[in-house]
Specification:
The structure is a homodimer.
Chain A lengths: L10 H4 L3 E5 L11 H8 L5 E5 L5 E2 L2 E2 L13 E4 L3 H13 L4 E4 L9 H17 L2 E3 L5 E4 L4 E4 L13 E7 L2 H13 L3 E7 L8 H10 L5 E6 L5 H13 L4 E5 L4 H11 L6 H10 L3 E3 L2 H12 L9 E6 L2 H13 L3 E2 L4 H10 L10 E2 L9 H11 L6 E6 L8 H12 L3 E6 L7 H9 L4 E2 L2 H24 L11 H7 L8 E2 L1 H10 L7 E4 L2 H11 L3 E6 L12 E5 L2 H18 L7 E6 L5 E10 L3 E8 L3 H4 L3 E5 L4 H9 L18 H17 L5 E9 L4 E3 L2 E4 L1
Parallel strand pairs in A: 1-2, 1-5, 5-6, 6-7, 10-11, 10-12, 12-13, 13-14, 15-16, 15-17, 15-18, 18-19, 19-20
Antiparallel strand pairs in A: 3-4, 8-9, 8-11, 21-31, 22-25, 23-24, 23-25, 26-27, 26-29, 27-28, 29-30, 29-31
Helix pairs in contact in A: 3-4, 6-7, 10-16, 12-13, 13-14, 17-18, 19-20, 22-23
Chain lengths: 712, 712
C-alpha cells in the first residue's frame, strides 16, 4: 500500500464533544438556524454554542458574540456567515484551537475567480492551523448515532434502533444527497452518517469514504460521485472496503463528456475518463447504480443482513404468463439463470396450480389468483425450498394484498429462508405505496418495477460472485521473476519528461522486466545488419530506430520480408534515404534487424497515465481492433492476476485467441504474464507516462514484443 | 404489398349489435358472469343474451337454455362453458349463424396434446362455418367507445370524454394485459379497444393490430407481444401504421432464448430470433418499451396530442447540481443533446438564480428552492422559450408542490408551449403519487424516475426523427436496372428444395440481378484455364466449382496468387487431386479461374429465411468480423434504400469503409445497390432459402462478388 488512506484524526468531525455554530440564527429555516434547533431536537449530547453578536439566547441556549467568548474547548465549528466574513471567522477559530470546521457558506470556487481566491485563502489558513475542513459549500455532516446534525437541509435525523442504522453516505451534491437521505429514510433505510462534501477544499470524498469503511457501525458505504482529484486515495479506500468485504455502492455521474464537464465545474474535480472509472469499479467490486431508486433497492437487500445470493440461479413466481416471461428476459439480461426446478418442486406445484398454469420456471399462477390470492404464496414457499435455486423473485400485484395477510405470508417466508427473496410490484406507477412501505419496514427487499427488481438482484449477485472470485484469486500466484529495476533506473538516467525513448531503449527496458522480444539486433552499418540477419536467419524485417521518429511506417522507415543479402542491402540504403527526406537531421540510433515472425496473433499492450487514477493498462488485439472497433480492456494499476485474465477474456474479439476456426489456441498465460510485468513497470517507474507494445505477437507457445515505444 | 392485412369483416367483433354469453353465470366474479353484469353496467346498447339452462333470468335479463332459443341474430357469442363442452356449443353457434365467437375457456393447446386436438377441432369448425374466432384462452375483447366488455378480468370500462380515448391495445398475455389496462387507466391513459388474444387459433395478434391501425378513433396502437406465426402480416400491419404515421408501441418478450421458449409454449407462437424482431422494429419505427411503466409514460407524451419533439436538443431544469448532471448523462445516453442556451436565456436566468446556481444547461436552481419554490417554475418558462431547445425535462421534488400551485404553473407552461415538456419526479419511490396523478389527469407527460423520463423522451424523439427520415428517404431513388428475373427462373429450372447451387450457377443468378462479379471464367480443362488466365491477366486464383463441395478451402480446392502458366498447370492438377481425395465421386462443374483482386475491403452479404418473417438480409465485414465479433446488421426484406444505408453505417467496423487511417473510402453506394438487388432477388425467389456472397470486395470505385453460394 502506497499510503495510509484512513486518518484517525477525522473521527473528531463525526464525534465531537462540542459544536459551535458561527452565524447562528433563531430562524430554523436558515442554514445558521437549522443546526441550532436540530442538534437539540436530535438529542446531541455534547455542548452546543450558538455564536452571533445579534442574540443573547437562541432556543434556550446562551448565544456568544464571537467564538472567543465560548467557554471551554470547541471540537467542531459550523460556519454559516456570509462568504466575505468566512476568512475572518476562520482566523478566530484557529486562535480558539477549534479542531474542525464545517463551512456551509456558498460563494467560493463554484462561482468563479473571486470565490476561488477566497477558497485558496481558507485552505492556507486551515492547513497552517491544522484544522480539518469540510466544505465550503457543504450542506453539513450528520451522525444519526449521536444525534449530530451539523448542517441544514436535513433537520430530523433517524431515530429508533441503532442496529438498523447500517449505511453511511457521502454526496458531492448537497441537494441531490439530501433527496437521497430523505427518500431512503422514508422507506426504512437506516443511516449512520451522511456527509455533503461541498467544494472539498479540505477533506475529500475519499477521506469520508475511508472513514466510513473503517467504521464498525457502518455496514454498507455509498456515495454520489461526480469525480475526484485523488484517484489513488479512492483506489486504496475501495481496496480497504474489498478486504473488509463491506459493499461500496456509488452513483457516478459523468458517463459522457458533456455531463462530466458540468460535474467538474460543479465540484472542481477532474473530468476523468468514465471508462477508467468503470474499470476501477469492476476491479474493486464497487456496485454502480443509476439513481436513487436503484440505490435504495440495493440497500433494501443489504439492509436485511441476510446472506447474499450464493449463485445466480433464480426462480420466478408471477401471476401471469406474460409478466413471468418478461421477468425471465430481464433476469437473463442481468446475468441470472432461470433454471429448471427439481422434480419434487414440479410435483408440489402441479398439485396446487390450475391445469392451465405452469409449474415450470417462471411459475405462472394464472388469473386464478383473482379469486384465490393464496395461489401466489404457496408456490413461493415451494420454490424457496428448491435445491436448484439461489434466489426468488416474487411478483406482487398491488391491490391483491391490501389486507396485508398475503404480505405477512411473504414476510414470514423471507424470514424463514437463507435465500434472497425480492418482491417486485407489477406496474405500480400509482398503486402499492402502502404495501411497498410495509415490506420495507419489515426489511423485505422490494422494488416498484420489474426492471429495478431484476437489476438489483443482478447487482448483488454480481457483487457476491465477485467477492468470491477475488477471494479465490488470492491463490493464483504469478510471481514475476527476472525483474531488474535497477537496470531500468540506469537506462532512464539522463532522460527528460516529455522525451520519447527510441525503440531499442524501450526494448531494453522491456527486457529488464522479463518481457520477451523478437529475435533481433541493432546495426549501425550494413555489415552488422547482414551479420545479425545471418545469425537470426532470413526472412527479416528492418526498421529505423530513432527517438525523433515515432511513426516509422509513415516515414518509409520499415521494410518487411527481406529474404537475401542483396535485398537487405537495397532496403538498408532505401530506408535511410527515406528517413533523411522525411525528417532531415533526425538522430539515428541505428537500424533494427528483426526476424520476420510467422503466424501468431498480434496484440497491443499499452500504459497511459490517467489524470485521476495514474497508470492504467490497456489490452486489445492488434490491427484495426483497438482503434476502429474500440475493442479493448482497461485496468488501473496495480493489476492482479485475476485482472490480467479478465482483460484478455473480456474483449469482444477474445475468440481469436482461444482457437477460432480450428486454429490452435494462443498462449494466454504468457499474455497475462506480460500484462502483469507491464503493470509492475508502470508502478515502479511512474515517470514513464506512456508505454506501447504494438504488436505483442502471441504464439501457440510464448509471446514476443515486436515493437515498443515509451514516452517519459 | 403482398396481401391486404386489414380485413373489414373483423369490425363485427368490436362493434356487434347483439352478444350472447354461453355459460352465463349470476356470479359476476366468474368468467361467465362478468360480461353479463358488466355489459349492462358499461352501457352496451346492443342486445345481451345470457345462455344457461340453469337460470330463468340473470340480473334482470332473460336467460336462454341454449343459443338456439335466442330470438333474432347473434353477432358475437362469448363462450364460457367448460372445455369439453366448447365444441358442441360452437356447433350450435354455427347453426345459429353467429358471426364471431370469443372463447374465454382455457384448457386447449396451452395444456398439451388433449387440448391441442380439441383446439384443432375448433379451428376446423369455425373455418367451415365462417365464424370469426377469438381465443380460446382469451380474457375477452373490450371496446370503451360502445361499452362492450366481452370478457372477464376487466369489468369496468373507462368512461368520460371519448376524445381522450386514443389508445388500442392487444395482449398475448391475459393477466399481464389486464394489469396494463387497469394501471394505465388509473393514471389517466384512455383506451379505445383492448384485446386479450389468447391462443390465437383464429384471429391473430396481427389481425387485431391491423384493425386498430385502420381505426380512426385509435390514435396510438400498442401490444404485448411474445411472438407471431404470421411475421409477414405483422410486417404489413406495421407498414400501414408507418404510412399513417400512427405510433406503434410494443412490449416484446423473448430477448433471450430461454424466455422465448417459455413464451412460445405459452402462446404456441414460433420462437423467432430476437435480433430479427429488433431489426424489424427499427425498420418500421416501432417503439419497443421494456415494461408497463415505460409504456404508460410514452403514452403520457402521445396522449397530450401535442407535437412530437422537432429535434433532439433538450434543456434540463433541476433543483440540484447533482441531479442535473445525472440527467445530462442519461440524456446523452438516450441520444439527446444537452445544448448551450442562447445569450438571452442565460441573461434571463442569471437575473433570477442565486449566484451559486447555474444558468448553463442543466439549470441548477440550488437548494434555494426549499425556501423559494417558484425558483423552479421561472426557469422552466424561460428555457421553454429558448430557440435552441426542442424539449425540456423538468425535475419535480415531491413534497414541494403539495399545494399544487407549482404544478398548476407547470400545467400552464405545458399548455402554452409547442415543445415537449416532461416532468421527472426526483427519487419518488413513495412520495408524489398525488402530484403524479394530478399531472397525468391534466395530460402533462410525467415519469416517476429520471431513467424513465429520459428513456421515454429518447423513444419519442427517435420515433419523430425516424418518421421524418423515412418520409424524406422516399425521395432516395435507387431504381434497380438490369434485372432479368426470367433468366433466373430458367436457371432454377429443375433444382430441388434443399439443393446447394454450384458457385458458377450462383454467380449467374447474381449476374442476372445486375451484381458485378470478379473477372473470371469457368474451365473444364487446363487449356481453357490458361486461355482465361491470359484473357483476364495474371495473377489469378483457381477454385473448384462443385455443388457437392461447399467448403472449398477445407477440401484443398483453392489456390491463390498464381503468376505463370507453369504454376497454373501445377495448381490445376493439384486441386483436382485434392478434391478427389476429399470427396471421391464429387460432381465437378469445372474450375473457376478468377483474377486476383488487389486492395479493396471484403464484405459479406447474406440472405436467410427467418421462420417468422421470411427473407432477411445480413451485412458485415469479411474475415473474422461477422463470426468472431458478431458485428453485422440485419433487415427484413423488402429493404428500402434507407435500410441499405443504415445496414452499412450501423456495423461497429463501419469506419473501415469510410477511409480508415488515410485509406481511400470504399464505394458504399455500390454496396447499397448490391444489398437492394439481393433483397429483390430474395423477394422474387422465395425458394432461395440461403444466399451468401462472401466476399463482396468493395473498391474505391465499384464492387465485385468474388464468391457466392445459394441453397434452395
Amino acid at each position: 500500500m502506497e499510503q495510509d488512506v484512513f486518518d484517525k484524526k477525522i473521527d473528531i468531525i463525526f464525534n465531537p464533544e462540542s459544536i459551535a455554530i458561527i452565524g447562528a440564527s433563531a430562524d430554523p429555516a436558515k442554514p445558521g438556524g437549522t443546526p441550532v434547533s436540530s442538534l437539540v431536537e436530535n438529542g446531541f449530547r455534547g455542548n452546543v454554542y450558538p455564536v452571533n453578536p445579534g442574540y443573547e439566547k437562541i432556543g434556550g441556549l446562551k448565544c456568544y458574540p464571537s467564538i472567543e467568548f465560548v467557554p471551554g474547548e470547541v471540537d467542531v465549528a459550523i460556519i454559516a456567515v456570509p462568504a466575505n466574513r468566512v476568512v475572518n471567522v476562520l482566523h478566530e477559530c484557529a486562535r480558539k484551537k477549534v479542531k474542525a470546521v464545517i463551512v456551509l457558506t456558498s460563494g467560493f470556487s463554484e462561482v468563479g475567480n473571486s470565490g476561488r481566491e477566497m477558497q485558496e485563502e481558507i485552505v492556507r489558513l486551515t492547513k497552517e492551523s491544522g484544522m480539518l475542513l469540510c466544505g465550503p459549500n457543504s450542506q453539513g455532516i450528520f451522525n444519526a448515532l449521536n444525534g449530530m446534525s451539523a448542517g441544514f437541509a436535513i433537520s430530523k435525523l433517524q431515530t429508533g434502533d441503532d442496529n438498523f442504522k447500517f449505511y453511511g453516505f457521502v454526496s458531492q451534491s448537497g441537494g441531490f444527497g439530501t433527496a437521497i437521505y430523505l427518500m431512503s429514510s422514508e422507506t426504512g433505510i437506516g443511516f449512520t452518517y451522511f456527509v455533503s462534501s461541498g467544494n472539498e477544499a479540505g477533506l475529500s470524498f475519499s477521506d469520508y469514504l475511508a472513514y466510513m469503511i473503517n467504521d464498525k457501525n457502518t455496514k454498507v458505504v455509498g456515495g454520489y460521485l461526480e469525480g475526484v482529484k485523488d484517484g489513488r486515495k479512492l483506489f486504496h479506500a475501495a481496496d480497504m472496503a474489498l478486504k473488509n468485504e463491506k459493499p461500496l455502492i456509488l452513483i457516478k455521474a459523468g458517463r459522457h463528456a458533456a455531463a462530466a464537464k458540468a460535474a467538474a465545474s460543479h465540484t472542481g474535480s477532474l473530468v476523468g475518463s468514465d471508462s477508467v472509472y468503470t474499470s476501477f469499479f469492476h476491479q474493486k467490486a464497487i456496485i454502480r447504480v443509476e439513481g436513487i431508486e436503484e440505490l435504495t433497492t440495493v440497500l433494501s437487500v443489504l439492509a436485511a443482513g441476510r446472506p447474499l445470493p450464493k449463485g445466480n440461479r433464480i426462480a420466478i413466481v408471477a401471476s401471469s404468463g406474460g409478466s413471468g416471461v418478461l421477468l425471465s428476459d430481464k433476469c437473463v439480461s442481468a446475468g441470472l439463470e432461470v433454471v429448471p426446478f427439481t422434480e419434487i418442486t414440479r410435483k408440489k406445484l402441479d398439485e396446487i396450480l390450475p391445469s392451465f398454469g405452469s409449474s415450470a420456471n417462471p411459475v405462472d399462477t394464472t388469473s386464478q389468483i383473482l379469486v384465490e390470492p393464496d395461489l401466489l404464496l404457496k408456490p413461493l414457499k415451494i420454490v424457496l425450498d428448491d435445491t436448484n435455486i439461489d434466489m426468488v423473485i416474487y411478483e406482487h400485484w398491488p391491490g391483491l394484498g391490501r389486507n396485508f395477510t398475503l404480505l405477512d405470508g411473504v414476510i414470514e417466508a423471507a424470514n424463514a429462508t437463507e435465500k434472497t427473496l425480492m418482491v417486485s410490484m407489477l406496474g405500480s406507477e400509482l398503486l402499492g405505496g402502502e404495501e411497498f412501505q410495509y415490506l420495507r419496514t419489515h426489511r423485505v427487499p422490494v422494488a416498484r418495477t420489474q426492471d429495478r427488481a431484476v437489476r438489483v438482484l443482478g447487482h448483488v449477485t454480481q457483487y457476491s460472485r465477485r467477492i468470491k472470485e477475488i477471494r479465490a484469486a488470492k491463490d493464483i500466484k504469478m510471481p514475476l521473476k527476472n525483474i531488474d529495476s535497477n537496470r531500468v533506473k540506469r537506462l532512464l538516467e539522463g532522460t527528460k519528461p516529455g522525451q520519447a525513448l527510441s525503440e531499442s531503449l524501450s526494448k531494453q527496458i522491456l527486457l529488464a522486466y522479463g518481457i520477451p522480444l523478437a529475435p533481433e539486433g541493432s546495426a549501425q552499418n550494413l555489415k552488422t545488419a547482414l551479420k545479425i540477419a545471418h545469425d537470426i536467419g532470413f526472412p527479416v524485417a528492418i526498421k529505423i530506430d530513432s527517438p525523433d521518429i515515432q511513426h516509422k511506417t509513415d516515414a518509409g522507415g520499415v521494410k518487411l520480408n527481406i529474404n537475401t543479402d542483396q535485398e537487405l542491402g537495397a532496403a538498408f540504403a532505401e530506408i535511410i534515404e527515406n528517413v533523411m527526406k522525411y525528417k532531415p537531421g533526425a538522430h539515428l540510433d541505428g537500424i533494427t534487424v528483426q526476424k520476420m515472425l510467422k503466424g501468431g496473433t498480434e496484440c497491443i499492450i499499452g500504459v497511459k497515465n490517467d489524470e485521476v487514477f495514474g497508470p492504467t493498462v490497456l489490452f486489445g488485439l492488434g490491427g484495426v481492433f483497438v482503434e476502429a472497433l474500440e475493442d479493448f480492456s482497461l485496468r488501473v494499476c496495480p493489476i492482479t492476476p485475476l485482472d490480467a485474465r479478465e482483460m484478455v477474456s473480456e474483449i469482444r474479439g477474445h475468440r481469436l485467441l482461444t482457437g477460432f476456426r480450428g486454429a490452435p489456441p494462443a498462449d494466454r498465460e504468457a499474455v497475462y504474464d506480460v500484462i502483469l510485468r507491464v503493470s509492475q513497470l508502470a508502478m515502479d517507474f511512474k515517470e514513464l507516462k506512456e508505454i506501447d507494445i504494438n504488436p505483442l505477437v502471441v504464439f501457440q507457445q510464448g509471446v514476443c514484443a515486436a515493437d515498443a515505444l515509451m514516452i517519459m
